[in-house]
Each structure stands twice: as C-alpha cells, then as structure tokens.
Write a structure and sequence with these properties.
alpha+beta; 14 strands
Length: 338
C-alpha cells in the first residue's frame, strides 16, 4: 500500500478478520504495516447462539482474540455483534454487550441477523428467531446501554468511544472525492460516475491478473442526482453540514429540501440548525434507511432498499469497461444507488 500510494500522515487504515484467523504473528505484522484499526466478526458471546449460526461455540476463544490484539498494541478494536439470532433473548443480547464493554473494545457495530430459510444442522432444528418487535427493542436497548457506557453513535449501527470513530463516512460519504474500490463487489466513485466491481472472486482475480479493471457495471451521475446522492449518504453518516454541502454543490440543501426536512423534524427523526441537520438517536439511527429515502427522486422512493440484489443479468458476459462519458445536463435525476 505505502509503496503504491502517497498516503497522508495519520490516514485511517482498518482491516477486518475473524477471531479464528488472528494470531500474535499476524497482529504484529499488521501493526508493522501501518494498520491501526482492526475489526473482528464476533457476532455473539453466547455458546448456543454461536452454534446456531454455525460458528465455533467457544466464547473464551473470542475473548482471548481481543485480549491478544490489545497485548500486541492495537488501541482501536471494533467487533461486530448480531441481534435477532435464532434462540436469542434480550437477556443473552445484554450479556454479549456486557462482555464487549468489559473487554474494552473501542467500537461496536451491530447488525440484524437475516434468516432466509429454516436451517437444520446435523438434523438439529434451530430455535426460532426473535419476533420483529423484540429485535427492534434489542437495537434501542443496545443504543441506550452503549451511550451510557461512553460510546457515541455513528452511521446508525456503529458505536465508538470518542476519538475512535471510523473515518470512512466522514470523508467518502460527505465529500465529493474519488473512491477507489478494492476487492469483489466493492463500489467506487470517479468523475461523476459510480461503478461496481466484479462480485465473483475468481473472475475478479483473473481480470486483475490480466491487467484490466474488474468493473462489472457503472452509471453516470447527473448534477441533480449528485445532490440527492450526497443527501442520502450524509444522512447515513448521521449528519449533513450546510456550508460543506454549499461549497461542493453550490446549493443550500436546507432550502432545496425544506419540505422533507420539516417533515423529518416533525417526526423527531432529525434536528436542524443553521449548521445543517443531524439524525436524532436512537430512534433516527434505527430508521436511517427510511430517513435517507426522503431524499430519493420521487420515481425511486417506492423501491425497497436492496439486500444484495441479483445483478447476474449485468455481469453474465463478464466485466464491462467503464466509459467516462458525459450525458445531457437536463437528464432526469434519480438516486437508485446508496
């Protein structure tokens, strides 16, 4: 990385791994290579829940991997937790949160477990997932508990100790800057275009080894769409700065989207002042996707937020070269990507 790019001093380098894969040697090498933030996919500290999602059901191994990282010198450690796992209760959810806090991690991200089908493991029928109302309450409970423990909310599902918040949203979601996507399915942004990398890892590697860009699809972003895109991503980052937005786009979003902002304020989902808007937690954090859709173009608001859409029709013939061409200025804007 440092041999290929001019890296700004203090740049935020992060890597994701699993507790099973981390070792003292790997942690030491990562630190020597400039990685300062590491994220572990823990999911839960409850043995039965780990078993239900097909993970090694040894919470002590998970705890030791976090302690190992701290001993090696990592000061910024994120863990991922899941709520809504088969057989999970509010009590077991609180246990996982308590363990994370006691271990001294600096950032906790949590996600809703998605069960697409009833799964049986070695003929063992899994217990049901919690009711949706319980899963909703789990989010709100965690937000309140982590806030009381000194964590601050970022990006809806991420809570970090002050000074340890992930920086990617503050820049890539709030500034009109190029984004270079590395890896399958990654999304990038360059010169009024967004584009999507080849999702199949085998074809991705083959394309790169052949010296070609592994881009599967892309779309030109009009001026109007760019404005809406910044609003959507800004909301997902939790806040939109009025002066920064005016500097980038040349418009005052507080005036341009007055009706949408007034409606969200009336519902107590955001607050607004002369500096911009901010999502109100914890209720607003939970409904980030819904709030962001208020700034979609009208023709796209009826579409659901995607959950890994099938794009096979776009990529069946292999990667498509990205053509950086311009489109008519009056092209109707939308915001069908996020």
């Amino acid at each position: 990385m440092f041999s290929s790019f001019n890296v700004e001093e203090g740049a935020d380098f992060s890597i994701e791994t699993t507790p099973v894969d981390i070792s003292e040697r790997k942690a030491t090498v990562l630190l020597e290579r400039g990685i300062r933030r590491i994220s572990l996919g823990v999911q839960t500290f409850v043995p039965e829940e780990l078993k239900n999602i097909g993970r090694p059901n040894d919470p002590e191994m998970l705890k030791e991997s976090i302690r190992l990282l701290r001993r090696c010198g990592f000061e910024n450690i994120n863990i991922d937790l899941m709520h809504g796992i088969n057989g999970q209760t509010m009590e077991s959810w609180e246990h996982s949160l308590d363990v994370a806090i006691e271990l001294g991690v600096t950032c906790i991200s949590f996600y809703t477990y998605m069960e697409f089908a009833q799964i049986s493991t070695k003929r063992r029928k899994l217990p049901p997932v919690p009711e949706k109302a319980v899963v909703d309450d789990m989010f709100l409970f965690a937000a309140e508990k982590l806030t009381k423990a000194g964590f601050l909310g970022y990006y809806g599902d991420c809570f970090a100790k002050p000074g340890h918040q992930p920086k990617y949203g503050e820049t890539s979601w709030s500034e009109d800057i190029p984004i270079i996507p590395l890896g399958p399915t990654a999304t990038g942004h360059l010169r009024d275009h967004w584009y999507f990398n080849e999702p199949d890892i085998g074809r991705y590697i083959q394309t790169v080894m052949e010296g070609r860009l592994p881009i599967s699809m892309g779309k030109h972003i009009t001026k109007s769409e760019s404005i809406r895109r910044s609003m959507v991503l800004g909301v997902k980052a939790g806040r939109v700065n009025r002066e920064r937005f005016r500097r980038i786009h040349g418009v005052d979003f507080m005036e341009m989207f007055r009706a949408e902002i007034d409606d969200l304020m009336e519902k107590e989902l955001i607050t607004a002042d002369e500096n911009g808007i901010e999502v109100t937690g914890p209720k607003g954090w939970y409904y980030l996707d819904n709030i962001s859709k208020a700034f979609y173009s009208p023709e796209f608001r009826r579409y659901p937020q995607h959950l890994g859409a099938d794009i096979s029709n776009f990529i069946s013939s292999g990667p498509i070269p990205l053509q950086l061409t311009t489109r008519p200025k009056d092209e109707e804007a939308g915001c069908d990507h996020h």
